[in-house]
Amino acid sequence: MAEDVKQRALAYHEQGKPGKIAVVPTKPCKTGDDLSLAYTPGVAQPCLEIKQDAENVWRYTSRSNLVAVVSDGTAVLGLGNIGPEAGLPVMEGKAVLFKHFADIDAVPLCLGKVFNDKGRTDAAKLIAAVEHLEPTFGGINLEDIAAPACFEVERTLKERMRIPVFHDDQHGTAIISLAAILNALQLLGKDIARCRFVVNGAGAAGIACSRFYLAAGAKKENFIMCDSKGVIHTGRSDLNAEKAFFAAETSCRTLAEAMVGADIFLGFSAPNCVTGAMVRSMAENPIIFAMANPVPEIYPEEALAAGAAVVGTGRSDFPNQINNVLGFPGIFRGALDVRARDINEEMKLAASCALAELAAAEIPAEVGAELAKAYPADAARGLFRGPAGIKLEMVIPKPFDPRVVPHVARKVAEAAMRTGVAQLRIDDLDAYEAAVAARLRNR
Predict the structure, then answer these.
(1) For a tag site, which of 76, 95, 103, 183 has the least CB within 10 Å?
(2) Whole-angstrom Cα distance, residue 290 to residue 302?
């Protein structure tokens, strides 16, 4: 990181009140009468109503709009196992994004003493700590928890809790990247069921993304996955259950060998591990999503020069940013608004389809004006003008597109109702989408 960026980032976090979040009351507390309602004696009344019927907690508290962002700091993006204290700025940042993009109140909870003697996640300890949070929160966003423990943590919590539990490192990346893949394949005239995938990185994101693509029609026999030791193949005896599921019957042993003839490369791994020669060895018009941060597996200009048709990264300064902020705010907005008990596969697929739809839709003038302010260089190139349709440089929407959260929330809420996990109904989804958009404009 450049020295000036480092100093500006540190000043940003330190100036004024340290950190990035604060608690703001939603009711007045300026008079003695206000105090008697906010606290004793008046507060006893909602307490008694909730004691009589626990469902009243949604009516008289902030729980219906409150999410816990939970981490143990063992797999912080780009930084690794830095611990809960060092991970706290990231979780505060996630809380900022929840509020800014979806008007959801979020509390960062970085948990300590949930580790084994090697300093890695003890799944049982983390599960025990998180499941006790249920009475306070409307949803749980798990973040930056190392694999393979993260799989057990999320799976068990989803079984034990009656509120949505969502590990964004797994499913957020999967949802966004699938939307981009669907649109890229449509542009290129390719069928996902026939495409060969190479996935470099077998942590939470790589495995969850690959499983999600299977739900969208990709075929398991068309996947080759690599970890730090090379290709994950059936001859290896060092695989955990998640990796073993993707063990391939192949003679390939290196990433370079695996990429020969592949249609899609997805990187969740290390910088500069893909070369132009590897891209040239792929099938015609390959798709490259190099999502290592801050330095991708291959830079877009090199991938394009080698023949890639569509390129995406995790960075905002390159086209087709695979950014989880396109997903989790709208997903939780929709889930909270129908009081969903879970975020299931159908809801995740609905979010992907919502994003794919938006990228193909015409950009209204007022939306284009907002995007031009957020992305002046893209606006100067005419990216936000022209007829409806997918563009090679924008197979997914931009994070600051104001249509994203309302449309994703609508599709997620609809899927929750359709699959029976919603506890509230929304009868007019057009009106709901418009109401979310108005709420975000006026907050």
Answers:
(1) 103
(2) 12
Give the chain's radius of gyration (CA, Å).
22
- In this structure, the number of other CB atoms found within 10 A of the CB of residue 431 comes to 10
pLDDT over 80 (residue 257): yes
110-122 average pLDDT score: 96
**Band of the pLDDT at 1, cuts 50, 70, 90?**
low
Which 3-state string (H, E, C) describes the chain?
Answer: CCHHHHHHHHHHHHCCCCCCCCCCCCCCCCCHHHHHHHCCCCCHHHHHHHHHCHHHHHHHCHHHHEEEEEECCCCECCCECCHHHHHHHHHHHHHHHHHHHHCCEEEEEECCCCECCCCCECHHHHHHHHHCCCCCCCEEEECCCCCCHHHHHHHHHHHHCCCCEEEHHHHHHHHHHHHHHHHHHHHHCCCHHHCCEEEECCCHHHHHHHHHHHHCCCCHHHEEEEECCEECECCCCCCCHHHHCCCECCCCCCHHHHCCCCCEEEECCCCCCCCHHHHHCCCCCCEEEECCCCCCCCCHHHHHHCCCCEEEECCCCCCCECCHHHCHHHHHHHHHHCCCCCCCHHHHHHHHHHHHHHHHCCCCHHHHHHHHHHCHHHHHCCCCCCCCCCECCECCCCCCCCCHHHHHHHHHHHHHHHCCCCCCCCCCHHHHHHHHHHHHHHC
d(CA 318, CA 302): 13
pLDDT digits 0-9 by tens, 143-177: 999 999 999 999 999 999 999 999 999 999 999 99
Per this entry, what is the length of the chain? Answer: 443
Query: Does the CA dihedral 333-339-343-345 come out positive or negative?
Result: negative
Q: Whole-prediction pTM value?
A: 0.95
Q: How far apart are CA 193 and CA 180, in angstroms?
A: 16
pLDDT in tens, 377-409: 999 999 998 888 899 999 999 999 999 999 999
Mean pLDDT of 235-241: 95
Q: Can you tell me the distance from the alpha carbon of 154 to that of 152, in angstroms, rounded to the nearest whole number? A: 6
Beta carbons within 8 Å of 414's beta carbon, 6+ residues apart: 350, 426, 429
CB 69 within 8 A of CB 139: no
351 residue type, one letter: A
Of 173, 199, 352, 357, which is closest to residue 263 (Cα–Cα)?
Answer: 199
How large a percentage of the chain has pLDDT more than 70?
Answer: 100
Residues designated as active site: 39, 94
